[in-house]
Amino acid sequence: MANIKTKEINITPHRSLMPKLGQTGYSISQAISELVDNSIDAREEGHLLTVEILFDANKKMIQVSDNGIGMNEETAANSIRLAQSSKINQLGEFGLGLKTAATSLGKVFEVLTTQKGNDEEYILEYDEDQWLKSGDWTKYKMKIKSGIDKRRSGTTICIKNLKFKIYPNLPGKIREDLSIRFAPYIENGEVRIKINTKWCEPMSVELKTDYYLPDGKESFKIKLESGEVY
Known about the structure:
Blueprint lengths: L16 H4 L7 H14 L7 E8 L4 E6 L6 H7 L17 H9 E9 L5 E8 H7 L7 E5 L7 E9 L7 H12 L1 H5 L3 E5 L2 E2 L31
Parallel strand pairs: 1-7
Antiparallel strand pairs: 1-2, 2-6, 3-4, 3-6, 4-5, 7-8
Helix pairs in contact: 2-4, 2-6
């Protein structure tokens, strides 16, 4: 008769999981939009949220900063944990957006965040090459900078060692994409978004129905294996 015993095993994810998040197939625009989504989730009620995005071709860097509510120490620590999120019914509910977006754009990123009334700024750094050599999920180091202006709040994400080249027309293309995606927020005066030196203007997408007149519908047929046609 066979005996069955129970044994506890360690299923901590291999450190290669973190860089693999960046291989999800995000476009540059989708990744930037994910970071803007996080900023919108963190907007202060009753206040205009400002999101500024900088593409620096010389430094091969992208920076996304906002004047939202920022994060306290616990929230900042959780922001680097996979699938950890306190958001419910919000854009960044599943706790993967920041990590996935940042690692899809570059091999190095840094998060700096602070809240009003707090004189500390929390700094999280990730370097893919270093992480693959010695990363430890249980001993991640967070820097805490004191002496910050208590009137400040917001989060800045700086992504370096980019996995793509910033070509001259890229900022304009991203500005156009974000102007469409976040048009309702911009039109309602909830959010304003600047890319390099220019602000996004809300753009609407018109759905045309003149391809198959008169009602935009096209009839089609389905043939089943039995030979019947519907």
